[in-house]
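Checklist before submission:
- one chain only
- standard amino acids only
- sequence pasted in full

Submission:
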Amino acid sequence: MAKSRYAQDTTVSSDRSRAEIEKLLARYGADGFAYATSNDQAMVGFRMRGRMIRYTLSMPDPGSPEFQETPSRKWRRSPEEAVKAYDVACRQRWRVLALGIKAKLEMTEVGVSTFEEEFLAWTVLPDNTTVGDQVLVRIAEAYKEGKTPQMLLSGIL
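Returned file contents:
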């Protein structure tokens, strides 16, 4: 997969991007917001229009050669340089998430699509999974088997 260029040189901190997402969501009517981080993931959750939405953001591995070695000659980076390269990748991911959420909210605001359509995959179900967690597995199975499972069609046909 090609490396994204969007926000690749951003100086906006991850903290500032998270705060921007929270303010953006509040401006569009979210009445709850949470985030959490671990070594390999970050999560942003919010409540809006009667729905719980949860984004799980995969974070890069700081031990990856991408951060430990220079891109051109594969020279070993110093520990400080590796941390700096890792931080750049984390900042970029948070900027991309902020852009994506803002774009979805704008699409719903002007009527291009509905809130439910834009945030469908990230909608949290009563069992704490997301619609995407449930449906993506079934879609992969459908393509593998070459037929659409009836459950994906229920309510459509």
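Reviewer check: The chain has a mean pLDDT of 90.
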